[in-house]
Amino acid sequence: MSEQVTISAEEFKQFQAYQAEKAKQEAAEARKAQRATYQQMVDDELAAAVPELRALSEQIKTVKDATFGNFAAVLDIKAEVVGFKEGGQFSHTFTNTDSTQRLTLGVNTVDGWTDMAETGIAMVRRYLESLATDDKTQSLVTAVLRLLSKDRQGNLNASKVLQLQKMAEDSKDEQFIEAVKIIRESYQPTATRRYIRAQYRDESTGNAWRNIPLSITDVDLLPENETAPEPDAEAEGTEAEAAE
């Protein structure tokens, strides 16, 4: 026969407080254990995933280097065939005979200029000062100065300089033409990253060009989002880049 224990209301209150505190501590310990389990899972998965991703990155780099190296030889042969080597071209597209496979190799560049560009700009400004000040020439001055405007890094825009060259040729003014020539010759772009775009014809989509995903981000694109536009319809800077 069990012995019945009688406690006061105050003792019962203390007992309840003890139970609540004990439950609180047990819950805290359980959460701590869960956090430790979570962190261990993270450590284990990272230990497994990162080496695989590093190995994949090295494989991509190896294939990338080999591809650029192999096609460098192709470009050398092309130069022999056509009789000259293309200069200032930062991308090349190759298509097979059946037009079922296409590869674009290129280098992203950042515009840069030598100090001779400032000499050319000064010559352009001197040419502008020599013009009459009627409304027609004022419009020309405004257009030229707009093309000579610089970006936040203090660089001219290469495409605007090409427009300026056309304007100089149309003017037939030797001083203007010479000034723009000096600016163009001072162009010194800096190569940043090499990129590769690989594509193939997909019979299931009416022989449309389809991009071959070359980055972790793109490998799980839905098929309808992989269809590649024709080269002349592509926006600049949208190349699918292979990892450096």
UniProtKB/TrEMBL annotation:
This is DUF3164 family protein. Residues 222-244 are annotated as: Disordered.
